[in-house]
Amino acid sequence: MDLAGRKLSVDIGRVGKQANGCAFMHYGDTTVLCTATASDKPRDGIDFFPLSVEYEEKMYAVGKIPGGFNKREGKASEHAILTSRVIDRPMRPLFPKDYRNDVTLNNLVMSVDPECNPEVVAMLGSSIATTISDIPFDGPCAATLIGMIDGELIVNPTLDQNAVSDLKLTVASTRDKVIMIEAGANEVSEDKMIEAIYMAHEVNKEIIAFIDTIVAECGREKHSYESCAIPEELFAAIKEIVPPAEMEEAVFTDEKQVREENIRQITAKLEEAFAENEEWLAVLGEAIYQYQKKTVRKMILKDHKRPDGRSIRQIRPLAAEVDIIPRVHGSAMFTRGQTQICTVTTLAPLSEAQRLDGLDGNETGKRYMHQYNFPSYSVGETKPSRGPGRREIGHGALAERALLPVLPSEAEFPYAIRTVSETFESNGSTSQASVCASSMSLMAAGVPVKKAVAGISCGLVTGDSDDDYLVLTDIQGLEDFFGDMDFKVAGTHEGITAIQMDIKIHGLTRAIVEEAIAKCKEAREYILTEVLEKTIPAPRPAVNEYAPKIIQIKIDPEKIGDVVGQRGKTINAIIDQTGVKIDIDDTGAVSICGTDQAMMDQAVEDIRIITTDFEAGQIFVGKVVSIKEFGAFLEFAPGKEGMVHISKIAKERINRVEDVLTLGDIVKVVCLGKDKMGRISFSIKDVPKEEK
């Protein structure tokens, strides 16, 4: 089919024949091998669907050999992990809820055409491979990318278009409804965002029509599977022992720990009652979960009661403060109910920006890094730390996207910036709390951000029809677990900077999407006005005393070699003498970074001297580094020497240089130009009186 002016084609049955489903995808010259494979039997002892999505970036796809000692691809990059998550999130709800067979969706990127994004090809290929396979799946679904340049929306933008786009939006949908939204935006209005979402949805419907023709020709009959649904007799027995009113009372509290203790007591009572029924005991935990879920959903949808007693639009109690951690460059803490995030900001020279080695030719590094940590103590659990998982990486990337549009340019603020969000306590939407905390932390660090950014999450509970639903503002953990949607929106007063939408049902109507975006805007405005802007109304005028200071100067690019010197001798001498860090780019922009202002000024002066075209009459201060019979050599800048002839040392005649000068003397000299040998010539005796 033709997709956004480029040819999309799929080979079925040509390769990967032993997988349950395989689609060999081609979009322009971008090639991705997509497979779907399922185990024969369900995995024992689990109460979830074990879906694994992999997005493998091979450097041969862009004609490169991987770096490092082994010269082969290592663990998945953050970009690959984020792409895997974007494929996983819309597809997971379309598998049967009681399916426990392992399923792996593998996407191998084999060739990349800059005109055709491999991520969208992998998303479509995963859908096609699964839909034509014998794996139970209520598809197909499709995904489209939308960009925006000068206010014009673009379908599946090219690599170059994406680099200058004000919007990076991914929308996945089924035939009728949107099932996933992921966006980074440069303060795009709510109306424009909705327009872009439904432009993508229209394209998705065309793609699904194309997939339908493939399924009609190549689709396999879906296999039967062993259902893991909870027996209805068990539910009936549980309700006899724990009536609905008792379960409602157990979950109806704003204290997470109290609710968990109530459920522990109910569980103990039921375990005792069913002690002789091993079959029921094996699935009792899942049955209690389902009972809680039905109770909470009924309370919200029918009675308009939330577990913590809030109204449908009410935000939990908010609090914020800055400078809570001493000696760091910037810190802030944001609290929303039982969700609490502390973000610490660190500033460094641009040389410490992150380097990226991936398939995106336009993105070789990034100066702003946001990282998110979620320790087990934040939810009252204990487990060993194994480093950030996919969820943590995804939450960090979401907050990073939300804050990027308000950061100053490198020219305005020549620093690499790292923010780290530490989760102190979690009970719903820590990712958006990290946006709020990070916005304040950046301001506290003296980063001249353009505006404050806040984020909030809305939830959803649906009934039996499309019109039977309720959108909840600021969902807590229980409403997220038992609800149908987690719709996160971050932005400024002027517009949206990031969206991430996850659902557990088969899609959202346009009315739900519009209402969720509107409610998120209302809540975001409140958080910005009443909390963030009252805590720290503007960025600090300067970075704090513990942060490195940076001076930027510009030199003639042709003089870069003079500053660097042979094998780095000159620049290393400046660094050794002053203790600063120096970065020079190809345009001649020089950044001098340090904590001692006097030493930074000295480094600037040294570079100025080195890059000056020497003319007669210029005054310099030099150090005597060598004495000869005919004169003395002075170092007047690191790695730069000139000579004072014996006749130019003193007014009166002298017989020996040593009679006036000794090694290490600091003297003021005037430049006489260059001698016959091309050396810079100085005079001490001719320094004007006013300069002495």
- According to CATH, the homologous superfamily of the largest domain is GHMP Kinase, N-terminal domain
Order of strands across the main sheet: 8-7-9-10-21-20-18-19
User: Could you tell me the strand content as a percent range?
Assistant: 25-35%
Quaternary form: single chain
Q: How would you describe the overall organization of this protein?
A:
With 692 residues, the protein is an alpha+beta fold. The protein folds into 5 domains: 2-218, Ribosomal Protein S5, domain 2; 232-303; 318-535, Ribosomal Protein S5, domain 2 (2-Layer Sandwich), CATH 3.30.230.70; 549-610, Ribosomal Protein S8, Chain: A, domain 1, CATH 3.30.1370; 619-691, OB fold (Dihydrolipoamide Acetyltransferase, E2P) (Beta Barrel), CATH 2.40.50.140. An 8-stranded antiparallel beta sheet has the order 8-7-9-10-21-20-18-19, sandwiched between helices. A 6-stranded mixed beta sheet has the order 1-2-3-4-6-5. A hairpin with a 4-residue loop joins strand 20 and strand 21.
Could you provide a short overview of the structure?
The chain is α+β, with helices and mostly antiparallel strands and 692 residues long. 31% of the residues lie in helices and 29% in strands.
Considering the chains and any ligands shown, give keywords for the structure:
692 residues, alpha+beta, Ribosomal Protein S5, domain 2, 5 domains, eight-stranded antiparallel beta sheet, six-stranded mixed beta sheet, 16 helices, 29 strands, 29% strand, elongated
